[in-house]
């Protein structure tokens, strides 16, 4: 009824470079530079994701270059020293990998990224096989959606069902992602419901109301 939410598979990059556990350090660096990415999925078998190697996993080797090993251990701990001495993707990677399913909503993917503190996620199927990669930039693309398209979805999927005429007469305007609903409605208790639904429309930055009950002209707060 209220539209179809975009999911990760709608925005993910399907052409993804990955490495195997035995990929050497220099090969990992070369692929990152060539593909202009800051992390690579590590796969085994037919493409099952077993970890992720990132720039942060590579940096300890450079940090150790001019530091005494004993001092480095005190500064970074045993894990940092292991990363610094690693020569393959399997030794460098963070495991298990933080991943997301292709059918997850963009909001779900954003929450996973935020909790894990990562900029991109491997997208996997039900057996953890690599299907793509989704980045922060991919998730933000929805905010580039045209104002007219957003307004049309609000009218079609929300106003026409929740606030239909003749009992309510509501106009929808969207400017720079801010949706404004004006007019008259029969039941003002529906305003919070409308607010929640409109905010859930992809591309909406904020929602405001200038609605009156029936013909009374009393404005309602947004």
UniProtKB/TrEMBL annotation:
The keyword Iron does not apply. Gene3D superfamilies: 3.30.1340.30, CBS-domain. Residues 12-70, 93-150 form the CBS domain. It holds the Pfam family BON. Keywords: CBS domain. Residues 146-215 form the BON domain. InterPro entries: BON_dom (IPR007055), CBS_dom (IPR000644), CBS_dom_sf (IPR046342), Diverse_CBS-Domain (IPR051257), UCP036990_CBS_BON (IPR017080). The keyword Lyase does not apply. SMART domains: CBS. Signal peptide: none annotated. This is CBS domain-containing protein.
């Amino acid at each position: 009824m209220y539209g179809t939410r975009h999911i990760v598979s709608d925005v993910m990059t399907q052409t993804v470079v990955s490495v195997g556990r035995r990929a050497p350090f220099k090969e990992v660096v070369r692929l990152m530079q060539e593909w202009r990415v800051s992390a690579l999925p590590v796969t085994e078998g037919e493409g099952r994701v077993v970890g992720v190697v990132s720039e942060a996993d590579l940096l300890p080797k450079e940090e150790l270059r001019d530091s005494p090993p004993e001092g480095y251990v005190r500064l970074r701990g045993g894990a940092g020293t292991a990363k610094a001495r690693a020569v393959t993707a399997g030794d460098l990677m963070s495991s298990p990998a933080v991943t997301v399913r292709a059918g997850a909503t963009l909001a779900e993917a954003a929450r996973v990224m935020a909790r894990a503190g990562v900029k991109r996620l491997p997208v996997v199927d039900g057996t953890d096989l690599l299907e793509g990669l989704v980045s922060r930039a991919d998730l933000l693309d929805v905010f580039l959606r045209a104002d007219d398209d957003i307004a049309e979805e609000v009218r079609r999927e929300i106003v026409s069902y929740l606030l239909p005429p003749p009992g309510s007469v509501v106009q929808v305007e969207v400017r720079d992602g801010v949706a404004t609903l004006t007019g008259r409605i029969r039941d003002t208790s529906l305003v919070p419901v409308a607010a929640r639904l409109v905010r859930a429309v992809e591309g909406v930055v904020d929602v405001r109301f200038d609605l009156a009950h029936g013909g009374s002209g009393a404005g309602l707060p947004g």
